[in-house]
């Protein structure tokens, strides 16, 4: 059977998107190649037609996760009133929806401890993704100078990441919302 020329690229992108969601849900070690390929409707044997190694798939999945999250947050920011973009990001990020669906959430909230322990070969590409993520969010941060915006980015995102991680550990939605609301209120009143 002959496929269209773009078929392989489309399948590759589907595998990466599926793997990205699985990695954010189950962690780096939880995303087995066989499960990822099964999700894509393919056999384990077809994996090497698309990737040289599991690490290559993992890095593409993490890249996809950062890109997807940055796109979502940038969209929210651009839809907000002038001067309130960072507040819109805080409200979207610290929502129960974002918290309850790690498969669509920020890779930092799902993977930070694992990414911190990644081997040296993956550290540089992960850092590159973090820098791109920060660059996408920086224009929306409060502050006049770049240094002020960077300081705000690190303070805001560190607080949001921690709040989501803590909220996800809690069994009751009301408890989760309390943590998220506290962090939202703190951030919105701090800048």
UniProtKB/TrEMBL annotation:
<dbReference type="Pfam" id="PF00440">
    <property type="entry name" value="TetR_N"/>
</dbReference>
<keyword id="KW-0805">Transcription regulation</keyword>
<protein>
    <submittedName>
        <fullName>TetR/AcrR family transcriptional repressor of nem operon</fullName>
    </submittedName>
</protein>
<keyword id="KW-0238">DNA-binding</keyword>
<dbReference type="InterPro" id="IPR036271">
    <property type="entry name" value="Tet_transcr_reg_TetR-rel_C_sf"/>
</dbReference>
<dbReference type="GO" id="GO:0003677">
    <property type="term" value="F:DNA binding"/>
</dbReference>
<keyword id="KW-0804">Transcription</keyword>
<feature type="domain" description="HTH tetR-type">
    <location>
        <begin position="9"/>
        <end position="69"/>
    </location>
</feature>
<feature type="DNA-binding region" description="H-T-H motif">
    <location>
        <begin position="32"/>
        <end position="51"/>
    </location>
</feature>
<dbReference type="InterPro" id="IPR001647">
    <property type="entry name" value="HTH_TetR"/>
</dbReference>
<dbReference type="InterPro" id="IPR009057">
    <property type="entry name" value="Homeodomain-like_sf"/>
</dbReference>
